[in-house]
Amino acid sequence: MNYSQMTKEELLEEKSKVEALYKEYQDRGLKLDMSRGKPSSDQLDKCLPIMDVLTSKDDYHASNGFDTRNYGLVDGIPEAKELMAAIMDTKAENVIISGNASLNIMFDCIARAFCFGIMGSTPWSKLDKVKFLCPVPGYDRHFGVTEHFGIEMINIPMNEDGPDMDMVEKYVNNDEAVKGIWCVPKFSNPEGVVYSDEVVRRFANLSPKAKDFRIFWDNAYAVHYLYDEEIQILDIIEECAKAGNPNMVYEFASTSKISFAGAGISAIASSIDNLEDIKKTITKQTIGPDKINELRHVRYFKDKKGVLEHMKVLASELRPRFELVNKILDEELKGLDVGTYIVPRGGYFITYRAKNGCATRIVELAKEAGVVLTGAGAPFPYHKDPEDSVIRIAPSYPSMEELEEAAKVFAVCAKYATLEKLIED
Amino acid sequence: MNYSQMTKEELLEEKSKVEALYKEYQDRGLKLDMSRGKPSSDQLDKCLPIMDVLTSKDDYHASNGFDTRNYGLVDGIPEAKELMAAIMDTKAENVIISGNASLNIMFDCIARAFCFGIMGSTPWSKLDKVKFLCPVPGYDRHFGVTEHFGIEMINIPMNEDGPDMDMVEKYVNNDEAVKGIWCVPKFSNPEGVVYSDEVVRRFANLSPKAKDFRIFWDNAYAVHYLYDEEIQILDIIEECAKAGNPNMVYEFASTSKISFAGAGISAIASSIDNLEDIKKTITKQTIGPDKINELRHVRYFKDKKGVLEHMKVLASELRPRFELVNKILDEELKGLDVGTYIVPRGGYFITYRAKNGCATRIVELAKEAGVVLTGAGAPFPYHKDPEDSVIRIAPSYPSMEELEEAAKVFAVCAKYATLEKLIED
User: How far is A73 from chain B (nearest CA, A)?
Assistant: First the structure.
């Protein structure tokens, strides 16, 4: 039953069987979505008690006596800094709190570098060329930001313990145009890779050719475990300081997938000097973030322990979804040699690696059968997967019933596209 | 008792009296603040019922069926667009909703122009010179943004019905480097000027030399009446469209001084084409604003009528503060020829015009007596009041008791500084 070992006739016969099955699904007029890492309604319902901690009867003063209802505190209330620092395993003094979308902080870091430079460096808008390293597969929205700024993006392959550090060192230490690298160090988007201590230390010990090189460390899934365990990564801020590169990293996190995707709080963590540099601009940009929402989050979660307890509740929604997709892919695809997949220990995605040249076709087939997947190529700069192989599956949003159908459709499409390819070759 | 008509001896005698009074205040170790247009605690308390409309028991779907708790809707929920449009007297289709600080939208408009240009124009970062017109006195944070970007700021005098339009037309229609003008068209910050229909129409009929010239129309006090009346200004977006300049204006508003200064919602209003141009960037910048807070605002206020009713409640906190300062200034300063002041019909400030050359000294004297005022020069680009005359008084924040003392101290300082000046001259 291994497709690679089938004769042409066997392949054609199998294809006609799979095609019939595919047509059946197609005729059912499904409308399913496994494209975005969005929480499900069930998961959001589990967060609703957050909405009860601040009413007209409550006190709105922060721990420093500041009235959160009023203007001011451009970097956030102290207890929100404590909470977000704990989530990132760093110190509150290294944190600035911002609005609901951490992507916005990342974008602003790049916009600031373009308009004003970093710590007195030449504004990037004045340079002929700016390059970013992009471990692939990676987060499509990261690449969307750098593409929007016209930054040249360079693919860096991912290993099982993080990006290919030989290649990262080669670029960063030798090319002054390389100003940044996108990293999701824990449960990377989409593969769920956790950076090893060695990788983190090699990052911290880079010797960038460009003084204004920054690691964009998007710690998006810092507490997003699917199982009852804690997986630690090293604190990059501390490691950079130890290595004599205190200002080399901007770290980001948010509660988007802890509280509400549409109404959380976010944070940047970095060295004091970087924060001072950033504050020079944000004190002009805003009178302050939404401090009531900061207070609401702290009053509800209290501390990291509270967050971790809550994440177990969310995991009870997420884990069955991941396991269901895994089970169906096992049942439908095991032994066929059509692709590989790993269900991670945390994060929001399952990465499917199809045979080279099949990913676009699988996504296309799924779409025609009513199942929306993230576009093939999306996890790569310029939407170009050089091997047309990677598909990001997002199981978090659909209901279990929908997910079961969607995963089955996916499996049929994976088989179908592989058969087409093998027959064609 | 008119200081200007006193002999030198009379002035010296009066000065020693005023000095004694000043010393008395100084000895009392006051700690008062009339520097920022912040709401008082009493005013914020009046907004607390807003916090009760969304609890864990409520439904979180917007009018278009969208779950506000989740990702998405980068331009905001439909009913929030309706509400903010109504506040600005424009149409919902012309509105994008954003986070809590409208200053942030304004900053981002300029940052976008620097990084990407406007509708295909050369990015401002690539130009040798970018200039903004600044009606003065104006809002210090506006000027702070343009100064931060290295934009050359040109003072435009304010008349009783808006900026000197002859001068505005001269600059805008002839100098391609002039890319924008800061306007607060209703209850201008700080003078409380309401732009006349003629002024609005002259704005709409500008013929900018620069295609990417934009009017930055900060409608910050659109419903912020101190008295039971409605004062209308023309809809600049409609007027620009009528005049064949549909894309010439960015309008801004927020609920910062309607709901919570630290946790409101904000909006930009503009032509559909401008909004499309803006969305090209914000779809990369963020996954969306805080939609739960949008829903909270709409559920509470419902519509413009609801907002206006609420603003009457806030006016009942604000009006007595403005009238108290007015009364004390009348009692203490009338007939002395030391300065002029007007209590506006809306907005957040009283503008005091001291005799030329006295403003800095008044602010300094007040500070030494424990009363913080907005720095002299703050309402001008580069903090430079060419006549050293204007002082922005913010009566909204202190309690009535504090305000009474602060206003009395102010009056003494105004007298003292004028006497010093007259004696010196």
Answer: 9
Report the complex ipTM.
Answer: 0.96
Compute CA distances A249 → A35, A132, B14, B28, whole Å. Answer: 30, 14, 62, 50
| One-letter amino acid of A300 | Y
- pLDDT score at B342: 86
Whether the model pTM is above 0.95: yes
CA distances from B346 to A320, B173, B268, B396 (A): 57, 32, 22, 12
- Is B20's Cβ below 8 Å from some Cβ in A? no
B72–A contact, CB cutoff 8 A: yes
A122 touches chain B (CB under 8 A): no
Query: What residues of A are in contact with residue B114 (Cβ under 8 Å)?
Result: 114-115, 125
Phi-psi region of B72 (alpha: psi -120 to 50; beta: other; left: phi over 0): left
A146: Cα separation from own chain's centroid: 15
Distance from CA of A341 to the nearest CA of B (A): 26
Q: In this predicted model, what pLDDT tens digit does every residue of B104-138 receive, in sequence order?
A: 999 999 999 999 999 999 999 999 999 999 999 99
**Nearest neighbour of A293 by CB, restricted to B60, B68, B263:** B263
Map residue A2 onto helix, strand or coil. coil
CB of A252 closer than 8 Å to CB of A102:
yes
CA B287 to CA B70: how far, in whole Å? 10
For residue B75, give the amino acid letter.
D
Calculate how close chain A gets to B282, using CA atoms only, in Å.
Answer: 9
* Tens digit of each residue's pLDDT (9 = 90 or more) over A65-121: 999 999 999 999 999 999 999 999 999 999 999 999 899 999 999 999 999 999 999
Question: Would you give the end-to-end CA distance of chain A in angstroms?
Answer: 18
Q: Which residues pair with B34 in a beta bridge?
A: B373
B178 alpha carbon, distance to own chain's centre: 22
* B53 at A interface, C-beta within 8 A: no
- Kindly determine whether residue B290 and residue A54, on different chains, have CB atoms separated by under 8 Å: no
Which parts of B257-411 are beta strand (E)? 266-269, 339-342, 350-354, 371-373, 390-393
